[in-house]
Amino acid sequence: MGVLKAIHRAASVWTSPASPEDYLQIINPLASARQLRGVVTEVRRHGARSATISFRPGRGWEPHLAGQWARVGVEINGVRQWRSYSLSAAQGHDPEITVTAIGRVSRHLVEHTKTADVLFLAPPQGEFILPTGPRPLLMITAGSGITPVMSMLRTLIPRRPDADVVLIHSARNEDDALFIDELRTMDRQYAGLTVVIHFTGNNGRIDFSNASAVETVCPDWRSRKAYVCGPTELLDDTEKLWANAGLPQGLQVERFAPALLAPSDTDGGTITFAKSDKEAVCDGSTPILEVGEEAGVIMPSGCRMGICRTCLTPLVSGQVRDLRTGEIHADEGELIQTCITAAVGPVHLEV
């Protein structure tokens, strides 16, 4: 290690004022000691609104487990924006994300990403993963909630002849159904997978809070370990059903957004971002993280759900409300989670 440091110091004499890494990145865009990166190897379009982006990560990436997610960063108008995306590739393969063009960053990825582009990355994380031992499984997904489950199916089904998996996937229509051709092929090819695709545009939604409705598509749902990913309503309904059945431990959910209280019409105010010398007027229901990003402030962020605490920012003055619990935070110097708090009157932040 001492030899490497000596070589780095010697090289710095010739590259100053830039660092040796800055010159190395010209040759290898993944070479960075400061920021994990990945180079895009393929972009596959799924209609006009979705795309799968495959990438080869650089040094520091940890191989993902099926079902995990990772933070992905891109620069938009000179500001680096981060979002969390489920990894859809099978475990043991180079990672990929499947993105639907909803929101600024997702639209940018779908509409502008091309082969050889460089993405900023953080290592995979998340506990929405397959069980360690064989057991019957039930996967319930809707919309883009199929993404982490697709990684699970691609990992488990081809490798385990003893697999017993039922997938119930809801989509608005056939054009909006991600991976539909692959799912149908897997359903035909593997006896251990049963795929039920439900189009809500024609048939309405399945009431997953109703035991009889679930039994219609999966009679033995109570005996299966269940994984659910999709819109908040789906997650709330399934959690209610499994709790009423006395089986809360048999259900594992993956939320793309935190469960929030009803929006406030009375709160809000002006947020001053001290270090960035910017101000923004906001309502009482928009997270401070989103307000700052819209104003062009480089905000620390991670899961954007109040879990990872990457977004912690010192509160200089003012009051903020936790959008999940309604709790007010007003202590000077307190570290607040900007992804799940909103302003209550004028707020000054140390960012």
From TrEMBL:
It comes from Yimella lutea. Residues 269-351 form the 2Fe-2S ferredoxin-type domain. The keyword ATP-binding does not apply. GO terms for molecular function: 2 iron, 2 sulfur cluster binding; metal ion binding; oxidoreductase activity. PROSITE patterns: 2FE2S_FER_2, FAD_FR. Its cofactor is FAD. Keywords: 2Fe-2S, FAD, Flavoprotein, Iron, Iron-sulfur, Metal-binding, Oxidoreductase. This is Ferredoxin-NADP reductase. Residues 33-131 form the FAD-binding FR-type domain.
